[in-house]
């Protein structure tokens, strides 16, 4: 029999990423003023059309990058080649304002972030990880906005937030090194002033020497790098990449002793499980010129780079949520064309299959409303409209959101993959492996749990619990919130410690996501949203977390189980 003969499976319909989504249109109506609804819906509808059209077609031309370290004369050239599809998708990101929207506060105010992250969620499943350099560019733009020199703000910052692909710069961040991983206190890279006898101030040029173990935007035009300044501590530097114009960084750039390629050597490209299109590299820095970014008299590189971490963590969560939404859309569409059993029943009519997808959809909605709750706080903070309580909640929930979304979305995507059977495991289907990286990128869950503990100091837990109780107090729906109240009471009395930081993070995540679901249900007044909130509270894993937290530490048994001690 020829392959053209016999049964031919009908492809599932292509759903619109915005109009056919059960969540995103309601977010627009809830979060934006009514006067903006038509404009925002029109923009997201147009963008969804483009995603289903030429943007998805560009994916056919995305290939892994290649590195040519030496030319045919034996000269070191370190030429990084990316594919046409990758370069075109980066141009699309600039044109669509995937960074610039966030900084157009004159037009959107605190809702600039909401619109930007809605667009991020819509396109992430077709972006082939272009969202990674966009996230770091976004973070770098915020750092320059806060700590850059007036010259950088005038010349360099507009490049990071430009919609013109011919002008737009992308940025990377160089934090990870071999000794410490996520612990930057062990940074080996050193920085020495180019002019040792001059006073050190913001924008002072330094020479950087070291090795950066993960550079995930190696084709960018600048990077933010941490380096140890002898006898002074950890500093943050903005480094021109070989393709950049150094005169955008400093008025004195022409007089500086720049090495060829600014002393940056690409040791090798990483051979990763996924994110194959993304040029991730190991870099050697030798006499690399970087410009100090300093706020105040004392060096504090960790504080200076914190905005990058916070913004990229929200981007990571949005990538997890957006990819899960796309996977669910594919699985949902497939139920309307795939027939099973002797009776040839559509999968949409099989209760067991529908129940599986319903559980995943409840998870997706919990993560989505959690995401946009934090995005709303970020927008208020950047627009300088946030209260002290809102700023405390933002600091607390940012690492929690990133960790929880990455941890739970992967399981949801696996369910969607299985819902298509063997087709789900095919690359062409679009349920890919790339989102696995979100569990590691910008911090694993245990690292983020410890960061949450630091954020919990100074009344952040109290502010969060007060907000959650206020949401619960407004609950007039049929949702039974007894289990949520029990969890909230436990959180209020819990003394968070390193030994159970992960469970503490999961407890905060469940309380937050349930509270945001309730908040949405209170707005919509739809029974369906009440049911979704109820199911998440009772079946989403909250009870198991409460049980484990209440059981107390288990360190000694853990050691015996793992190490046979």
TrEMBL record:
Belongs to the acyl-CoA dehydrogenase family. The keyword Cell wall biogenesis/degradation does not apply. One of its GO terms (molecular function) is acyl-CoA dehydrogenase activity. Keywords: FAD, Flavoprotein, Oxidoreductase. Its cofactor is FAD. The keyword Cell inner membrane does not apply. Residues 173-287 form the Acyl-CoA oxidase/dehydrogenase middle domain. It comes from Rhizoctonia solani 123E. InterPro entries: Acyl-CoA_dehydrogenase-like (IPR052904), Acyl-CoA_Oxase/DH_mid-dom (IPR006091), AcylCo_DH-like_C (IPR036250), AcylCo_DH/oxidase_C (IPR009075), AcylCoA_DH/oxidase_NM_dom_sf (IPR009100), AidB_N (IPR041504). Residues 301-454 form the Acyl-CoA dehydrogenase/oxidase C-terminal domain. Residues 63-163 form the Adaptive response protein AidB N-terminal domain. This is Acyl-CoA dehydrogenase domain protein.
């Amino acid at each position: 029999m020829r392959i053209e003969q016999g049964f031919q499976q009908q492809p599932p319909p292509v759903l619109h990423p915005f109009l056919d989504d059960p969540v995103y249109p309601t977010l627009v109506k809830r979060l934006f003023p009514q006067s903006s609804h038509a404009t925002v819906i029109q923009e997201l509808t147009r963008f969804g059309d483009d995603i289903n059209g030429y943007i998805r077609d560009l994916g056919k031309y995305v290939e892994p990058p290649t590195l040519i370290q030496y030319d045919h004369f034996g000269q070191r050239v370190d030429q990084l080649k990316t594919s046409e599809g990758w370069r075109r998708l980066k141009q699309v990101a600039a044109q669509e304002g995937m960074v610039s929207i966030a900084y157009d506060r004159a037009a959107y105010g605190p809702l600039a972030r909401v619109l930007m992250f809605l667009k991020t969620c819509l396109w992430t499943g077709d972006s082939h990880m272009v969202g990674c350099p966009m996230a770091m560019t976004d973070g770098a733009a915020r750092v320059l906005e806060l700590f850059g020199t007036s010259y950088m703000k005038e010349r360099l910052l507009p490049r990071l937030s430009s919609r013109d692909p011919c002008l737009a710069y992308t940025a990377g961040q160089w934090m990870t090194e071999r000794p410490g991983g996520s612990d930057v206190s062990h940074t080996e890279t050193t920085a020495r002033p180019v002019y040792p006898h001059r006073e050190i101030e913001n924008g002072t040029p330094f020479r950087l020497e070291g090795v950066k173990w993960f550079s995930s935007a190696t084709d960018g035009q600048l990077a933010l790098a941490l380096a140890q300044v002898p006898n002074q501590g950890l500093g943050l530097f903005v480094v021109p990449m070989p393709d950049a114009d150094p005169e955008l960084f400093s008025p004195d750039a022409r007089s500086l002793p720049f090495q060829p390629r600014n002393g940056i050597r690409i040791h090798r490209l990483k051979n990763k499980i996924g994110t194959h299109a993304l040029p991730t590299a190991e870099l050697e820095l030798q006499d690399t010129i970087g410009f100090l970014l300093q706020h105040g008299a004392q060096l504090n590189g960790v504080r200076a780079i914190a905005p990058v971490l916070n913004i990229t963590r929200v981007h990571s969560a949005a990538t997890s949520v957006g990819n899960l939404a796309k996977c669910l859309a594919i699985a949902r569409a497939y139920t309307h064309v795939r027939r099973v059993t002797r009776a040839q029943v559509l999968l949409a009519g099989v209760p067991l299959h529908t129940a599986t997808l319903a559980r995943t959809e409840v998870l997706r909605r919990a993560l989505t409303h959690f995401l946009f709750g934090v995005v709303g706080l970020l927008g208020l903070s950047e627009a300088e409209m946030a209260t002290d309580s809102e700023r405390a909640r933002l600091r607390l929930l940012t690492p929690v959101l990133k960790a929880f979304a990455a941890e739970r979305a992967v399981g949801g995507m696996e369910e969607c993959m299985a819902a298509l059977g063997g087709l789900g495991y095919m690359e062409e289907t679009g349920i890919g492996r790339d989102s696995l990286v979100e569990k590691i990128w910008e911090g694993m869950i245990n690292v983020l749990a410890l960061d949450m503990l630091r954020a919990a100091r100074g009344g952040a837990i109290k502010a969060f619990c007060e907000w959650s109780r206020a949401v619960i107090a407004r609950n007039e729906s049929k949702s039974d919130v007894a289990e949520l109240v029990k969890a909230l009471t436990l959180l209020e009395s819990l003394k968070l410690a390193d030994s159970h930081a992960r469970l503490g993070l999961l407890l905060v995540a469940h309380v937050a996501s349930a509270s945001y679901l309730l908040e949405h249900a209170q707005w919509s007044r739809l029974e369906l949203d009440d049911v979704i909130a109820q199911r998440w509270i009772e079946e989403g894993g909250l009870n198991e977390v409460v049980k484990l937290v209440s059981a107390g530490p288990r360190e000694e048994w853990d050691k015996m189980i793992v190490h046979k001690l």
